[in-house]
């Protein structure tokens, strides 16, 4: 997380009070040149630094002691690695022996996600092939138990207590905190989620820019999502609201706490607010001496905490005994004092004297939000991955004569209602989204060709003749008018669109056809594809391994037969049909459509 580990000292002599470092054993000025060279080489090669802790004199120098030594490898989250290193130094100097043998402790900083992926084989890892100590250590101390769910259940992985605790907090710069009081005060998950809601860009988001840590790589990022989702659910928030938040946060992730704090200090029109561990805030302020310190904001609803479980992975025998003895040292009174010296709390949440306002934090223990069950955690993680996927969308706009009729009692035409809400809904899509537009009625490109491409499919941010595709779509929608005598060649248009999207399917995106119509259905005087035939064609063409779904917004549809046909079309492709009766209802449809990405491609059809 935010803590940095030293690679230039053998025993982790960082002292928060800046006292002179204690003299090492072996005589004044003694330098272990081979080890120092190895560490330097590791740094130059980009390999995570590690430390072999010097042993008690009675164990002798490396390779010269009475009897074989026990080598213990420890992989710790980078933020807590310096503290673990300090404890390891005390453990080695204590003269503790296992089965009459001395213990050599190697402490390595390793990202929790990397170790978890390496152990479980669940994802990519940066572990070096030539250095497996981080990939398969005897003792593993990740920053959260959230990483331990995939560990073997055969007893080979045992959690032997916790090394420390650090609450997940909101954070901003000191100057940002002062401005934030007028935006939302006191600090809360409710306020943060409101500012991050993509469906309300003109609300709190106009004042506050929310920064997120990737929850697939950072436990504080996942913890923040879990806390925010819990608060939303407790307040009666809908799934669509959560999706709006996830969509927005997916576009504002920063790769690491260091990048987060660097962004917080920049002067911007909107106040940047992020999430981090309390210890990361402390570390940033005490180790970098920033001109604009970070401030930890403790949500009023409470929060979740990083809990640094001590996972013993040693298989058996003397090494497993040594691992258990080292775990006991970490959880001892001395071990607890050491982690407090590095800005952490003890496992029971007690803060030390360094957690003070001058360092941007508070020693007062915040209220706890209980983590949800594993199924809920997995569901949220899956939702994040789905929302992070790109999108490729082809919009089909009905411009037949009935679209000129009133949409509701306001007198606004169906055409105007669709175009205005489409322009509003476009705000929900990030610049990387690929969108194109077709208009359809009948014979728009000659006899029997009922559709006409208006804007080709491509990224919204892409410029065409100096104008972004997003702006071109807005301009085209504003000019769109219904053809007074136009019929509705719906089925032929749908089939042409489905063939195109299937042929151009992109596996790294959610591929969707979004149909806007008024529900009158297919009334093509030229014949074309019949209602039963289009459903059969779509069923045959739909491939769940390469899913292209149809979402339908059928305005003012009242006839049961029309609703049944639209629903059948959508269901044939794992899509959904919606039947709004007022302009306001249409606005909610966009988020419902995005929400379906959480279950794609196995959502099933629905009519609303």
Walk me through this protein's architecture.
- It contains 18 helices and 21 strands.
- The chain is α/β, with parallel strands linked by helices and 608 residues long.
- α7 (239-250) packs across α12.
- The chain is elongated and about 95 Å long.
- The chain starts with 32 loop residues before the first helix and ends in a 13-residue tail after the last helix.
- The model is unreliable at 1-51, 60-66, 127-133 and 604-608 (pLDDT under 50).
- Pfam families: SBP_bac_11, VWA.
- Keywords: Membrane, Transmembrane, Transmembrane helix.
- Residues 392-598 form the VWFA domain.
- This is Substrate-binding domain-containing protein.
Protein traits:
608 residues, alpha/beta, six-stranded mixed beta sheet, 21 strands, elongated, disordered C terminus, membrane
* Percent in helix: 25-40%
How many DSSP E strands? 21
- Calculate Rg over CA atoms: 30 Å
- Measured distance between first and last alpha carbons: 45 Å
Q: Sheet bearing the most strands, described?
A: 6 strands, mixed
Structural class: alpha/beta
Q: Helical segment tally?
A: 18
Order of strands across the main sheet: 1-3-2-4-13-5
The unreliable regions are 1-51, 60-66, 127-133, 604-608
Pfam families: SBP_bac_11, VWA
Keywords: Membrane, Transmembrane, Transmembrane helix
InterPro entries: VWF_A, vWFA_dom_sf
Protein name: Substrate-binding domain-containing protein
